[in-house]
Specification:
The chain folds into 3 domains: 83 residues, Arc Repressor Mutant, subunit A; 103 residues, Periplasmic binding protein-like II (D-Maltodextrin-Binding Protein, domain 2, 3-Layer(aba) Sandwich); 103 residues, Periplasmic binding protein-like II (D-Maltodextrin-Binding Protein, domain 2). It is 43% helix and 22% strand. It has 11 helices and 11 strands. The strands form 3 sheets. Strands 3, 4, 5, 6, 9, 10 and 11 form a 7-stranded mixed beta sheet that branches. It has a two-stranded antiparallel ribbon with strand order 1-2. A two-stranded parallel ribbon has the order 7-8. α8 links the parallel β7 and β8. It is elongated.
Length: 306
């Protein structure tokens, strides 16, 4: 047998994505190049690694075992590379994060200077809904997760990054008084909710429940951007995180409507399993954030008047 590390990497990515096209995209290769390498790899085995039914590719049991072996080999190669760079005094490896969708307004500002200082690092950041972030956290498949509302279990360790405020938001054209409205105003407005499982949805529902408003969602959208566009278009109102609407506030496309009991205040938190053994890369990032977070907040997250 004479397979290459490149073939191992390509085959492993195909088993992870179950798609030659997706594997090619993630590896930044052309689809024909991936198909050729898969065929060349398969020719070295008498037992099928994959099978195609209809337009779908399936991994055989034998193929799954080869994929596990390939992953082990590639991990060992990465370890050798990391050790070599470490002896040169360079931090290398991979930092893996999972963050809730509205966390994309926060995490890049904590990552960018660190990644620029450590150019040999790889970054994998999954931006998804709260349920999937918690799943990756519990399965210990990431170094850190970014959440505003923490799960009740299991035992976690955390580092608070910055305050997260939620306001009632409307479009910039309608007129509202400056003095706070009673909470009952939410009954009079067409409210737009995020999807179930979203941290923003949880903040909104908790506030409504504590206020005994008894509201039932009639309008639900699946991203912060979709909610924001709907609010700007005058379709309705929503309780939204301030950090996600900074630009629109500055351009008066939206406005904050004062309501008794608002804003809801939580915190963005970097979270990991209690007792987790951090990699050198994860440890370095955690140390960096602890040291620099106040300077980052002052530079990027100070909103005048809020």
């Amino acid at each position: 047998m004479n397979y290459t590390l490149n073939q191992l990497q390509i085959f492993l990515k195909i088993t992870q994505t179950l798609s030659v096209t997706k594997a090619a995209d993630e590896l930044h290769l052309t689809q024909p190049a991936v198909s050729i390498q898969l065929r060349n790899f398969q020719e070295q085995f008498d037992i099928p690694l994959t099978e195609v039914v209809g337009r779908r590719i399936y991994i055989t049991d034998f193929g799954k075992e080869i994929a596990q072996a390939a992953e082990a080999v590639l991990n060992q190669i990465a370890t050798i590379t990391n050790k070599t760079q470490s002896y040169k005094g360079q931090l290398t490896g991979r930092l893996k994060l999972s963050i809730v969708s509205t966390g994309k307004y926060v995490m890049p500002y904590f990552l960018s200077p660190f990644m620029k200082q450590n150019k040999n690092l790889d970054l994998v950041m999954d931006v998804t809904n709260r349920s999937k972030v918690i799943e990756s956290l519990l399965e210990n498949t990431v170094d850190f997760s970014l959440l505003s509302f923490l799960p009740t279990a299991p035992a976690l360790e955390k580092l608070d990054l910055l305050e997260n405020k939620f306001y009632l938001v409307g479009n910039g054209e309608e007129k509202f008084k400056k003095s706070p409205y009673p909470k009952s105003i939410l009954k009079e407005l067409p409210l737009i909710f995020r999807e179930k499982g979203s941290g923003t949805r949880q903040a909104m529902e908790n506030f409504i429940k504590r206020s005994n408003l008894g509201l039932v969602p009639k309008m639900e959208l699946t991203s912060n951007e979709a909610v924001l566009e709907a609010v700007m278009a005058g379709l309705g109102y929503s309780i939204m995180p301030l950090l996600g609407i900074k630009s629109q506030l500055q351009h008066k496309q939206v406005q904050l409507i004062p309501v008794n009991g608002l804003p809801i205040k939580t915190a963005w938190r970097l979270v990991w399993l209690k007792g987790k053994k951090h990699s050198p890369v994860a440890s370095a990032f955690l140390e960096y954030v602890r040291k620099e977070k106040n300077a980052i907040i002052d530079k990027y997250f100070t909103i005048e008047g809020q």
